[in-house]
Amino acid sequence: MQKLMGLVRRCVEDYHMIDEGDKIGVGVSGGKDSLVLLKLLAGLRSYYSKSFQLEAITIDMGLGMDYSGIEQLCRELDVPYTIVKTEIAPIIFDYRQEKNPCSMCSKMRRGALNQAILERGFNKLALGHHYDDAVETFLMSLIYEGRISCFQPVTNLDRTGIIQIRPMLYIHEKTVDHFAQQQSLPVLSNRCPVDKHTKREEIKDLIFDLVKTYPDLKERIFGAMQRYPLPAWEPQGRYKRPKEQE
Q: What is the pLDDT of residue 83?
């Protein structure tokens, strides 16, 4: 717990993610990434030099998922929790019958989440993207779009005034998995009909195969993103690339 909070704190400080008095909404899908983020930010809140507020927000896609375990976790962490009910899944899969639903789903979920953040007077939205997500997104942009690109650690949404932050970028997915199991977090199974059948899964499989030959592949890509750097990826603090834990 202390080690991972240390990595979150380093990331927060390298990219100036949290300011005094921030009101931060945490996007909680029910997956391991968002629950680990919530747990770590709640822990960081207790000792960080800048005071900030937290609230967990779930966009209910209309897939019949049970969020009672997350409600209990939020009570234990003393974090307010809001569930925003939507019909996103029925619209995409039943009404529109989208053949490639991921892009539209992402836009609709993000729009609902941003609206919920604004309605509650929060100025920042914390998302659970981790180290592996960044590497995969970089390769997806390169391979599928022919662009050198990735999401940014801190993103200013001009239309809404919301600032998106990604405090877990220094934590590997394998470490997130281990921590979620160790802490017995109430991780929900993904009921999306296209889960595990996406371009991201193809890239995960590609990286898995490449790492067998090039063990430091992910570290080299992540480091290149910071050294190049991609827009907004150059850290301001003293950064050491985290090694993946076995």
A: 92
Beta bridge partners of 156: 163
| Segments of the chain with pLDDT less than 70 | 94, 96-101, 191-197, 229, 237-246
Pairing of strands 124-126, 22-27: parallel
pLDDT (0 to 100) of residue 60? 86
Domain count, the chain: 1
93: its two tokens: 């899969």
* pLDDT value at residue 105: 73
Q: Is the peptide bond before 229 cis (omega within 30 degrees of 0)?
A: yes
Phi, psi of 136 (to 5 degrees): -65, -40
In a domain, 44, yes or no: yes
- Answer yes or no: is 245 within a domain: no
Helices and strands, number each (H, E), in the chain: 9, 6
- We report the CATH number of the domain holding residue 128 as 3.40.50.620
Diameter of the chain by CA atoms?
A: 50
**How far apart are the C-alpha atoms of 87 and 66, rounded to whole Å?**
16
Q: Where are the alpha helices (DSSP H) in 15-151?
A: 32-45, 68-77, 88-89, 102-119, 131-140
The answer to whether the beta carbons of residues 222 and 235 sit under 8 Å apart is no
* pLDDT for residue 71: 95
- For residue 189, what pLDDT is reported? 80
Q: Which domain holds residue 169?
A: 2-227
51 occurs within a structural domain:
yes
As a whole number of angstroms, the distance between CA 233 and CA 226 comes to 5
**Runs of H (alpha helix) within 78-185:** 88-89, 102-119, 131-140, 173-182
